[in-house]
Amino acid sequence: MAATVEALALLRRARRKLESPTVKHKRWLVVASLVWSVAACSPALNWRQVELGDLSLWLPCKPDRTHRDWQLPVGTFPVEVVGCEADGALFAASHLRGLPPDRMEAALDAWQGGAFASMAATQTSAVASVTPHAVHQRQWSAQGNRANGEPVQARLAWWVVGQDIYHVAVYAKALRAEQVDPLLEQIKLP
Fold first, then answer.
1. 29: Cβ–Cβ under 8 A, 6 or more apart, which residues?
2. Nearest alpha-carbon partner for 125 in 93, 156, 146
3. d(CA 139, CA 158)
4. pLDDT tens figures, 115-139
5. Among candidates 76, 130, 134, which has minimal Cα distance to 103?
6. Which helix (H) or strand (E) holds 97?
7. Which of 183, 85, 84 is nearest to 127 (CA)?
């Protein structure tokens, strides 16, 4: 019986300690630090490797994927598109297959013009880049407006490999290096 009374007294003292302001404050700090660590482990840009045809690239989110026929002034061609949205930006990559070499330049011009027109580009500038194995490449920075009138910045790139054209783009209200650099610096072509 004495042991039971002693155990109850010990439990009461332990409960009072747990309910003391100092312990409550420490428990709050533990909970806050756990919440912070979980948030830190959930980055806005969760980069992952994605394959598109023979192109290997990194996107910061799980992409949606679609296939369609694309009408260009030089003909209709199959295109595969992957894309996703993360951290206020739209990331996309496209692969156009089977383009005859004599139509490559016209197709690139039409595609580039369409991209600039879709964002009502008011300012464009070429960006120097070198990607191994690309026969022809173009990279651009552009500023314009979305269809709803909101401002948009874009980084756009096209590569020609054989009879294929690859296109990678990122669009956001204000692009940041951490959105653009991993996307364009990790490109691997066949």
1. none
2. 156
3. 6
4. 999 999 999 988 876 565 556 789 9
5. 76
6. none
7. 183
